[in-house]
UniProtKB/TrEMBL annotation:
Biased composition (Basic and acidic residues): 1-10, 715-725, 1131-1140
SUPFAM superfamilies: ARM repeat
Sequence similarity: Belongs to the MYBBP1A family.
Acidic residues bias spans: 726-755
One GO MF term attached to the UniProt entry: DNA binding
Gene it is expressed from: MYBBP1A
Name of the featured protein: MYB binding protein 1a
Keywords noted in UniProt: Nucleus
Species this protein is from: Equus caballus
Region (Disordered), start-end ranges: 1-29, 704-755, 946-972, 1126-1402
InterPro entries: ARM-type_fold, DNA_pol_V/MYBBP1A
Subcellular location: Nucleus
Bias-annotated ranges (Polar residues): 1172-1191, 1244-1254, 1331-1340
BP-aspect Gene Ontology terms: regulation of DNA-templated transcription
Amino acid sequence: MAEMESRDVAEPMSLGEATKSGARPADPHGLLKHSREFLDFFWDIAKPQQETRLEATEKLLEYLRTRPQGSEMKYALKRLITGLGVGRETARPCYSLALAQLLQSFEDIPLCSILQQIQEKHDLQKVKKTMMRPALFANLFGVLALFQSGRLVKDSEALMKSVKLLQTLAQYYNHLQEQPQQALVDILSEVPEATLQEVLPKVLRADLNSVLGSPEHLQLFLLAQQKVPTELEKLMGSVNLFSDENIPRLVTVLKMAAASVKKERRLPTVALDLLRLALQEDKFPRFWKEVVEQGLLKKHFWPASYLCFRLLGAALPLLSKEQLQLVMRGDLIRQYGEHLVTAKFPNQFKFAPEMNEYVGAFLEGCRDDPERQLAVVVAFTSITNQGLPVVPTFWRVVQSLSAPALKGYVAWLRDMFLQPDLESLVDFSTNNQKKAQDASLHGPERAVFRLRKWIILRLVSIVDNVHVEKEEALIEEVARFCFFHAFFETKKPTPQIPETEQRFSFPLESRAREVVSGAFFSLLQTLSTQFRQAPEQTRDGQPWTYRLVQFADMLLNHSRNVAALTPFTPPQRQAWDRMLQTLKELEARSSEAKAKAAAFQHLILLVGIHLFKSPAESCDLLGDIQTCIKKSLGEKTRRTRSKAVNPQEPPWVEVLVEILLALLAQPSHLMRQVARSVFSHICSHLTPRALQLILDVLNPEKSQDEDDNVVVMDDSEKQLENVEDKSEDSEDNKNSEDEEYSDEEESDEEDRDGDVDQGFREQLMAVLQAGKALGGVDSEDDDEELGDEAMMALDQNLASLFAEQKLRIQARKDEKNKLQKEKMLRRDFQIRVLDLIEVLVTKQPENPLVLELLEPLLNIIRRSMRTSSTKQEQDLLHKTARIFTHHLCRSRHYCHDVGNYMETLYSQVERLVQQAGHQADSSISLYYFNASLYLLRVLKGNSAHGSVHKTQRKEEAGLDASTKPRGPEAPSSFDLSLVTPIYSSALSSFLTKRNSPLTVPMFLSLFSRHPAQACLLLQKTLPTRELRLCFEDPEWEQLIGQILAKVTENLRTLGEAQTKSEQQRELSSVELLNVLFRTVHQENLTTDLTAVRGVLQSRQARLQQGERATGSGRLHNLYWQAMKTLGVQRPKSEKKDVKEVPSATQSPVSMKRKKKGFLPETKKRKKRKSEGTMQQDATKPAVTSGNQPPSTGRKRRNRVKAKFPAQSQVNGTPATKSPAPDPPATSPSTPAKTPKLQKKNRKLSQVNGATPVSPTEPAKSPAPDPPATSLSTHAKTPKLQKKKRKLSQVNGATPVSPMEPAKSPAPDPPATSPSTPAKTPKLQKKKRKLSQVNGATPVTATEPANIEEHQKALPKECVSGKSPQSTLPRKKARVSLASRSPSLLQSGAKKKKVQLRKGRKP
């Protein structure tokens, strides 16, 4: 391939040179005719990925099928043949496979020509020495390609040439080793017998030494022996491979074959063929004994041993029952057992999985022969190491046994348990066990105990395996066997109890009965949990536990034949009888309480069976459980006269919770399951006190201080197994333990050095000084001067002192280990108690008690994350976190009725957020923050739930919701103003503190779950100066644009708000929109507002319809405030005449309901002046103002303001204008403004966000017939006008002359009524100030609403300098505006004063 690649690269060079020289470019390979796609196939074929290679090969074949006669076929063959000899070893098989697929697809290509091209391309005679190895492999892979195509065995000429080439390649053993000979054997195994007879003399020498010289020659001989025995006999004569002189040579050949497949880990074909030949010639015993066990096994060569193991597994289907007995009781099976025992280190090769596959395949293949199945399973079980079988108790191959074989296997196990036959076992001892001098390790009692222990666990695992086909009689037999021998013994056999007729050859020890007892409760758990679907039910419809209780009751009644190991006392027997009576009562329950009764039945059955294991404790529990059951099911418990009724008696659910906690303290998985089942039925009746009992266990401080309340018990079975495992490890791995022992000694020395205290030093010095004084010498003398008696006394004192110190150190170690063990048991107990918490949050997520779990679970998480060093701490942490996150915070259901705990939840939210900000680890802080979000969700859910009832109450009372203040009106309502400061302060802490534990995903989760909260926080955050300084101008503009886009998308996706939460979300979004508009206009940002305007205009019709709906007034005002910023004025609403008299048919009650929310007529102020008097007063200000000289001064200013009354806009509604067909001239009484003053006013109006209008500039109005001002409008005094003018200035309005003309397209609009009252200058001034504070621009009374013109004039990218007006009431707006931007108000006030001063100058 290297040559090919070099040629492909060199071709363009020669083409370019030929073109320059003027000659015609040459293309000997035809590369220019091929596409790039076709050439890429060959690159993909050599890639290491198998999928890529196969895909490239398929595409190449498809490409060539469309052009079978083109130049592509020739190029493909040449390219693939060249690729057989590339330098990359991984690419050669790829090209060989592609060539084989090509030859298989195109059968018209002759194989001889391909073989000739291969030999010509990779000629072994002409190739250089450095290229000899690639050429050899190219020829080999070329022949393999012809063979893999499937056509070689049909073409005799190509076959003979290939055989000849392989024989030539076999001479280069240094490069190819045995691969050519192996390829020859593979090819000849596929050829017909006639062809083999023809080829055999050419490939096989008539020499036995050559046949036994290599595994390949021997395999070729065995192939000929199998296919053409007559031709082979003619060629070599009669040959006996299993003769005495040939057996050593066979062992050598098999050893060579084992070494050749060492890396592949497979059985050589020659070994299996040799086994078949031995079976065929009836020489299998000789072959197995001399070749396998005495030949290969004695080599002490592990590949040879593995070959023997594989040969054993492959021989199982070929052997008869007698031959199986021979194979399974020899030296090979012992060595296999020793391998299973000693191969325990991770880096050691373990043959057990491979042998399990062999045995499983054998059992599957002979299901119709149960005798052979039973023989193999019993044979492997009989391989024991000092009585303990080497196969595991959970050996899964038994699931392939047929029903008769399984029944026979269980019977063999039972008989071996009762009467152990150690002679029938294939027992062995490891080298370390043989070196042990302890006689107790070699006694039959130990072997019997180990065997019985394994057998009982094996019986339980057979029932436990769901894949094993077993009958109900077999399950009952195993369960009765375990229960009887765990708690009873036979006094006199009886046919009624078959277990009494079973005799022991070795007495059953007490420790063996403990093992059987533990196995029985493990079996009970299996029967209670595994058969839950078909259930734990027997044929008569009763649970297995109930059936075993009946069996126990029968045993108790046969006291003559059977005796309990621990006899019942009279109270215990009474408790047993009451339990049976309670079971009958539970069975008689109706179907409504059937599930609850079943759970209680399971609990009482389990505790009743535990009477045989721990009678005293179970007897007390039974009485309490029966009392709780009767109370929970609605029955009144019968009390004797001696027992008085205790008014302080705790509720039954608390007693039952204490019982469940006591059961969870036991190391029984079955107890754990039963406790979960019972608690799932009683958790709906849970009281705060009962929940506190559970939380006290989970509280680390209380659980450490109150350990005496619940005693956590350890499992004796585990201790026993640990002792056995330690003894086995000490026997099998002595060398490794010696090293560990030395390490332990070093650590003990370090501990001793660390444990030496000052008291021990003083005692040691005192002993040494006493010894020297006893010798009568000074301390400066040498030790040699001490006498023998003094030295002996000193040694004795030192020995006793160090012995005491050693005992003290050991006592401290024991105490430390005891505390550590108690801590581990306590953690296990807490993990089991968490099951009850999980059941509560899963079954009763809407229970208000669930809210009490937040902080205890958070305390466990926080504590465990700090001290999660051990596995149990990590398990406790993981389980608590899983319950908290998945079952609590992310649950679809939550509490919807918190009752009077609403205020407590607000404070709890604040406390959780504060604790989240005070944590040292952000991962812990995340849990606290999620807990606050969960409570926020609960609060919102309660507000939505309570809003329905609140709305109904309002409708019944006939009250208008707009007259009521917003906020938390009832305990069930959700007050957003109480929650917003909490998260706002947390966000400020996150943004200001460097090492804040709060993270961005926390707030993203808050905003995604509660968009209204995000809108309120942004409203408070965006106007802050500190935030603005953090951004450059382009970044700030981009941020504002992104927020606008998000708010727009939020409003678009929200649609029509239905629920209260959706209405709150819409309200917050529109408020944030106004804040954004204010920011855009104040900073002259270039932002596209087209999308926002479209979304707002789509809501116009719905808002107009629901303007008077409950609670929609504020939203309506905010909407029109935003629309006014976009240039759309709020349409005028038609007001009804005040003097309109209701019809006589309407009753006063109906009038009140119709005019809901307005003052009644009796509450309105009486009119003091008549209509004519008011009209006369209305003309006085105009006359007075016309006679005033143009002078400066305060009175003059007030009069000038009185001449220009401006009606302030309230909530964006323009004042009523009076359009005229022709613009009137300026009144002579109107003081003319100087150009300088007009310019100042124009600038001031631009600052306020309004477009200045000239006093003489007409304003166009699209309305054809604007309504005239009502004739009943009363004239206002100048003082009132002055007040309103000041109020309009405070609100942010720019006064415009009242005499400004307004153009109208209407031909004859009605003129302004002469009775229109004039406002006093003082009232006008007040209104003008108020309008400036509210952010509105006052318009003259004659200026019409200019809606369409504003919409047309508004560009897509709007630049404005005026912030939108606030939506709060006027007092609140004034305060908030003054607090947010006081400099703006001060600068505006100063500018107005300067303008007025300049206006007074002549």
